[in-house]
Amino acid sequence: MKENIYDLIIIGAGPAGLTAGIYASRRKLNNLILTKDIGGQAATVPKIENYPGFEEIGGFELTDQMKKQAEKFGSQFKYEEVIKVGKANNFFEVETSAGNKYQAQTLILSFGVTPRNLDVPGEKEFLNKGVTYCANCDAPLYKDKIVAVVGGGNSALDAAEYLSKIAQKVYLIHRRDEFRGEEILVEKVKKMDNIELVLHTVVQEIKGDKFVNKIIVKNLQDESIKELAVEGVFIEIGHIVNASPVRQAVELDEKQQIIIDDYCRTSELGIFAAGDVAFGEYKQIIIAAGEGAKAALSAYKYLQQKKGKKTPVLDWSNKT
Ligand code: NAP
Which helix (H) or strand (E) holds 201? Predict the structure, then answer.
């Protein structure tokens, strides 16, 4: 085996990829994690209260711990954006925007999701000048200011609650009056004096000078339009999968999620997928981490079988 050919390349370092790194390293697979950042979407969550073992932990802190754990056991990291996944000779080949090519016997695709845009005038123009997709990163910039959070899922509720402790006032703008997020978060948000719920409402435009100074919103029930003076707009309206680097390599569903089976196997033998990028209704940190572990064990088992080795007992039901 050539030195620069890995047993496993993991693409993406969110909870799925990092957990895959921990499990693969402990099985002594020579693994490389290729990633743009550490933590992915999970790192942007200000406060996580539903990851077992931690009553409360920041997303950055949790994923940083996972990274240290993967590194300790032997995962290598390179910070490069993957632009293409294909095959070369008998190996998988991963090409990055840095112009490098890496080869491996197996791949785990765990590159997560990217924030969905509102697609309204002013959104692109004021990006990082009042418009942001990361409450955890940018909330401290809005101390004592008036801000808006857009969305009705866990991300928007989390962001609104976090911002209410920093900003002077938070408008939580949602297009319906029912929330998708956890009831416990909805209750918390409703109790905060400085959060105003603006329901049945959509943002039509983000306006400003050098920085955002107002948004134009429309009430969907009575069609009334009004202006809200805000200096920050936190867009938390879900995510999309950008699967273009792997479109030719594996089968995707209609939402561009990678189709996997119960063992995290994709349509291509030797390629596995885990976490938010993979097909699945529940996008949770604990589920991504669990799938990362499963994908790494499946990759290990596949490599063992490829070498003609008898598959060791990996779980209680496998006695062969
Ligand atoms: P989400 O659950 O998909 O919610 C997106 C919200 O944005 C929905 O309320 C949706 O409205 C609204 N929306 C979508 N497109 C819109 C548009 N164009 N204009 C206005 N509003 C729009 O997304 P999320 O909150 O980012 O959460 C994603 C996943 O991560 C979920 O599974 C969530 O549970 C998970 N998550 C978990 C945690 C945690 O465990 N601590 C934290 C954050 C996120 P409708 O409801 O009307 O469709």
Answer: strand 201-208
